[in-house]
Write a structure and sequence with these properties.
By secondary structure, the protein is of the alpha/beta class. Helices cover about 30% and strands about 30% of the residues. A hairpin with a 2-residue loop joins strand 2 (about 30-40) and strand 3 (about 45-55). The radius of gyration is 22 Å and the shape is globular. The termini are far apart. The mean pLDDT is about 90.
Amino acid sequence: MRIRKPLLVLATTDPVLRDSAIFAVVVDRPGTVVLRHDIVDGPDGGGIRRIVLDSSGVHEDVLVPLEHACLSCSVREDAVPTLERLARDGRWDAVILALPVAAESLPVTRALDGVMRHGGRLRGLRLAAVLAVVDRETFVHDLLGDDLLSERGLALTQDDGRAVGEALAAQVGHADVLLVAGDTPPGDGGHQQDLTASDLIDHVRPGDGVRVDGLYSLDVAELLRRHHDARLAERRLDPLHAVAAPSAPEAHGVWTVQLHSERPLHPERMLDEVHRLGNGPYRSRGRFWVPSRPDSICVWDGAGGQLSVGAMGHWGRQSPHTHLVFTGVGEGQENLRTAFEDILMTPAEFARGLHPWLGREDVLEPWLGSRSAA
């Protein structure tokens, strides 16, 4: 029976942390080879800078032109054939795919999943784990602040308008293993800032994932023995399953509130007042519905001062409901609860039924799409 080599996918928003994590792994496990990608986007066209390295040094450093400098293109056009080649090379018994800084890991694992199945090009590999690396010292500002990736020189392409927090939230939320850079977690005598950051990490990371504190505390052998569950990992980021972390500490100024109602959000009031929920220093996720399209599941995802809403399928047998989960630091819980109640349809409005909304202008169509596409 052919032994499939373990593959790790590494994501972070910090180029120094990416290189530090790579170094920590290859020093601990010299038989590991790393494929590191960076997206190059410029006026003359895009490309992928491919670096292949191990504990002995760099083996390849080439620029691969691409028609479209995007993450899905890099996986399809360069990562898959390169990983296939590395999997067949007898010099190495494990592989790391280090994603471009600020790249989200979920689209990559989706692309890899199909070619790792029986008979696929990457049948010599198995996805062991998705690893995200964060810096505890900067985590609060990175996740809840409003810095853009472009302002830090981290945008993947020229039109990448994401916030740092948006990219960070997607990476942390998908990870099997979260590696927290910094000293050993502070105890009761630690600085308030460190304690707050540590608690915030626990509020937003997957409850079924693993947290490791310290770059050199990672048990690489155990990490490579893991088996990534693609369905479970997708569920972690699914707004339909957004819930508060079950065991996150309620201390040091960090909080999570769950706003739930069987009533829909009022479209006009949502349009006018959404800034009260969406523009604050919060990590927010969930689903909602509106009376102008009662069959549509509307999804909510916010971080870094940015909010994304859209339509995702239909409720089917599930009763429509509104459920939003907010995490923040310091004050803000009561303001969120008040804003939520103000934007919801009132009990009296809801009691009138949905007939008044038939044929009414859908003011949310620019964000949710046409009703036929919902």
